[in-house]
Every structure is written in C-alpha cells, then in structure tokens.
C-alpha cells in the first residue's frame, strides 16, 4: 500500500472499518505478501525503499542500515514483519509482548491523530508472538522485541518474567526493550537492571523504555541507572493514562522535550525516540534534539507506509547539506566508461528511429523489404483493399509515436538521472529495454522476420549491455524533499496514482495487442474500417497478414516497454522538485498520444469505441500531470527557508 494508493483509496476505506478489522486486514495482507515467494520482489518494486548507504549509522558500536525504525504497537503480534522489513526501516520493534495473552481493544482518534491502547497491550502472548515471528524467517533488519512487564512486586519477580519471555525470542531478537511501570527506589532499580544485564548476553542490545509523560527528574534518574548498566533509553512517545496509554501527535512535545533533557545531561547515552512522528519534519526535530535513532509508529497509520522512505530522504538531504569539505563531483573518467552515455545513446537512437519511422509511415508506408517479403509493390496493396495502406499507416504511425516516447524517456532518465547517480533511473531503463528486446521474438508467432528490425535491435542491444556494464554516476544532491503532509503533497499523490494507473494500462493494452497480433491479427473495428474480413485479406496473399501482424505485435511490444518505463518512473522517481521528471514524462507522453489519436482522424478511422481507451488514457495523463505540477515543478520559498534554517 504505497502512499499514492493508501492516502487516495485505502485509507478512506480502512478508516471506515472497525479498528480491529482494519488492522487485521492490512497487516494480514502485508504478511501474506511478505511471506510469499514473489512478495518481497513486489514490495521492492512498488516502493524502491531500500535505505541509501548514506543512511548507515553506528550507535555505540552497533551499525544500523537506517536510523529510522518501526516502533511497537503497530505489528504487535508479528503478522507482517517480513513485509515491513522492506519499507526502508533499519530496525523493527515487535510488541509490546507480555508473558500471558493480553485482552482489550485499541481505539483510534482521527482528530488528534492518536491511538489509545489498554495496559497490558492486547497481544497473543510471548510464545505465540515468537511462533509467528519465526514464520517470517530471516529478515534483513535488526529485530527488537518490547517486553511489557506486568509483575512489578520486586526485582526478582520482574526479572523472572523477563527471563521466561526472552527465552522465547533467544534466536529471533537482536535487541530487547524493557517496558516496566514500576515506582521503585534506586536500590531496586539497580538490582533489577543488574539482573537483566547479567541474564542476557552482550549480543543483545538492551533498552529501558521511558514514557514521554514521565517526570523529567525521574526519567533522568532512570536514564543514569540504565546507562551505568549498559542500557540505552527508548523514549516511548506515549502519554500514560489510568489504564493504558495514548500514542501519536499529543505525545510529541513531551517526547521531544525529554530527548533534549537527556541529551544535555548524558553525552554518550544511546537514545531511541518515538512520539508522533507523522512527517519528515518531525523526524528531523527528534534528530536535532539528540535522538540517535527515531521510531515511527502511529505515523505509519495516519501518514502512510511511504513515511519511512520520506524520512530517510530528508535525513540524507540534511546530511548532504551539513557535510563540510565533502563533494560529489563527477569523477574524471572517460565518457565511454559512464553508463549514462550508452543508455542515452540507446534512447537517442530510439528517438531518431521513431522519427524516421513516422516519416516513412506518413509517406510511402511500406519499405522495399516489406514489398519483397509480400511479393507486391506498394500500389498492389490497394488492389487487395482500398483502405489497407491507410490502415497500415495508422499502425505504423502509432508504433513510431511509441518509439519516440521511449526514446524521450530513456534520454531524460539517462541524462538527468543516471548521470547524477540515480540508481532507480538506471534500473528503469534497463528493465524496459530488456523487455522491449524480448518482444522482437514475437516474430515466431507472426512469421515475418524483419531483417532491418533485427539489425537495429542487435546494435541497440550492445548499447544496453554497455550501459549495464559501465559505471553509474556519483550521487549528487537532490532537490529538497517535502517536510510536511501538505495539501500539495496529497494532491500530487492523486497525480501519481493516475500515472501508475496509466502505465499499468499501457502494459495490459500492449499485452493484449501483442496477443491479437500473433493470433487473430485484427479486432472487429479494424475489419469494419476496411469493410472486409481477415479471410479475404489472407486469401489474396497470406503474407500480407504476417506483415500486418508484425506491425501490431511490434507495437504491442513497444507499448509494454513504454508502460514499464512509465510505471517504474512513476513508482520510484516521483518526488518534490523533480522538474526534469515531470517535463520528461509530459513530452514523452504527448509524443505517444498525439500521433496515436491524430492518425485515426487523418485516415478516417474514427470509431469512438476503438478510440475511447486512448482518450481516457490522455485524460488521465493530463489530469495527473496537472495535479503533480505544483509538487514537482513549483518553487516553495517557505520550504526552502525551512531547509536553510535546518542546515545552518
């Protein structure tokens, strides 16, 4: 559920359901996806959320792939851990877990963007949570388990309960956070912390959970004891209530203030903090206050699953702009060793080839080797059917427009993306091109081996191989990412949704057209336009059908290829300030739509049912572009000023 689908479609639906039903449905679906054979690939493809290497951070000798983690109270019973591990987190906290199952209901307050949980937190118990966590196998992030202690009569009873719970997670957890609501004197706290530290080996990182609403003096006292026994402090962004706690926006000021107090008092204390992190700006505030690690919990519910990716982008941007004496200039390497050059050359070749194909399609239509294959001159085609040349022109103009579209996308992605170290742009081009080259083998279905097509494909394939083999450019600073959940951001998500839907439609349409091309060749509207039947055309010369099928299947293959490059670009490249992305997609899209629609009217093929998909697609494309314009292209002085203040 990326943000473009969560904010626009799924969140309104889920928020109308009972809380328990919505949680079970969303986490259950993600869990099944994460555990399925292709699920991890689907998640990575949809989100491209793997943390940037620049996010790696060492906290007291332990390295995290990202300082952003998922907090407890979200995946309480480890239903979707393997899926959530691919959302860009550096660690995931499971729980809170109690020794025995906990009952009760979770409440959500949409107005305050908060969640209220009873104490103990509803969960199936340590043994069952461990069993469910084990189903996910090895995940690629650190796993922390929050142990909620309910027996606080003495240090001995609390330690005994922790002993039983940790035994369940001995082979599963990397870290434990201890959530214990006890009002003990210092001597009891010392006894308890010493017992827990002695019981658990050094391979486990230990955290003591402190509620954001805890008195600062008491929190400082506990933090000092925790640090002296090798514990870090986990600031739980919760406001304690009579029989539970409230997490979310209301807890942010308290949690932020507590982080500041502890950082000023303890220079080397490891601090992990949560508390209403619903926007990237919230995460940066906690980092500036002194938190080593930041935790998203309720933000995943109210802002969407793309929040960790947005937070990571903000942290990377902040690091880039606060580093002194570091440069990301292009290394002095020869042009032929740079990936972008070969990928751009492939795109330029496609662009030129598309323009040449367009010129031919609007003039003589068929080439000499087409005539040689069929055994007819161009003039003889009209003897088969008076509208056959017009129909073939319609096919070939549409194919040429699609080639131009692909060429523009490849050139834009290569020059503005790959050249600047944007990894997703390289993957987008390579995936699309590889599928496009595979579509050449559709000739096995329609029986016409086009020698010129084969020659061009062989040349362009070498460009693809060289682009794959050569070096990606060094990562350069990207435009400042959005820090808040603004109306502009929400509006742009609708635009992104339309871009994704349009690209998916291209892939489906291309698959259908390719299938029709190698089977029946025509759709009913085609035959109605030419006022004939496929049998009549085939009876005059069977090779004419093969020639037409070649055009149709080739167009279908190119449409799939363009759909893939549009889809991957919309999924991975949609971000604030990406002006080049917006203009590249606009020019490429219009280069495909205008010839495809215009040629139908030029040749008199004006069947509205046949043209409806193109008009709907164009409307989706233009609407999506309009909705995304402010987010991608318009300058934001207030955001620029905020970033300037954060980097000073």
Keywords:
648 residues, TIM Barrel, 8-stranded parallel β-barrel
Topology-level CATH name of the largest domain: TIM Barrel
* Rg, nearest Å: 30 Å
CATH class of the largest domain, anyone? Alpha Beta
What is the percent of helical residues? Answer: 55-70%
Total beta-strand segments: 14
List the uncertain runs.
324-328
Chart the SSEs and their pairings.
Blueprint: H1 3-14, H2 19-35, H3 39-47, E1 57-59, E2 62-64, E3 68-70, H4 81-84, E4 91-97, E5 107-109, E6 114-118, H5 126-135, E7 142-149, H6 155-168, E8 175-180, H7 186-199, E9 205-211, H8 216-228, E10 232-236, E11 238-241, E12 244-248, H9 252-265, E13 271-274, H10 280-289, E14 293-296, H11 298-302, H12 307-322, H13 339-361, H14 368-374, H15 378-384, H16 388-417, H17 423-438, H18 443-446, H19 451-469, H20 487-518, H21 524-530, H22 534-540, H23 542-572, H24 579-603, H25 608-633, H26 637-647
Parallel strand pairs: 3-4, 3-14, 4-7, 7-8, 8-9, 9-10, 10-13, 13-14
Antiparallel strand pairs: 1-2, 5-6, 6-12, 11-12
Helix pairs in contact: 1-20, 2-3, 6-7, 7-8, 8-9, 10-12, 13-16, 13-19, 16-17, 16-23, 16-24, 17-19, 17-23, 20-23, 20-25, 22-23, 24-25
Overview of this structure, please?
59% of the residues lie in helices and 10% in strands. With 648 residues, the protein is of the alpha/beta class. It has helices at 3-14, 19-35, 39-47, 81-84, 126-135, 155-168, 186-199, 216-228, 252-265, 280-289, 298-302, 307-322, 339-361, 368-374, 378-384, 388-417, 423-438, 443-446, 451-469, 487-518, 524-530, 534-540, 542-572, 579-603, 608-633, 637-647, and strands at residues 57-59, 62-64, 68-70, 91-97, 107-109, 114-118, 142-149, 175-180, 205-211, 232-236, 238-241, 244-248, 271-274, 293-296. It folds into 2 domains: 3-320, TIM Barrel (Alpha-Beta Barrel); 335-646, no CATH class. Helix 4 links the parallel strand 3 (68-70) and strand 4. It is built from 26 helices and 14 strands. The chain is elongated and about 100 Å long. The strands form 3 sheets. An 8-stranded parallel barrel has the order 3-4-7-8-9-10-13-14, surrounded by 5 helices. It has a 4-stranded antiparallel sheet with strand order 5-6-12-11, covered by helices on one side. A two-stranded antiparallel sheet has the order 1-2.
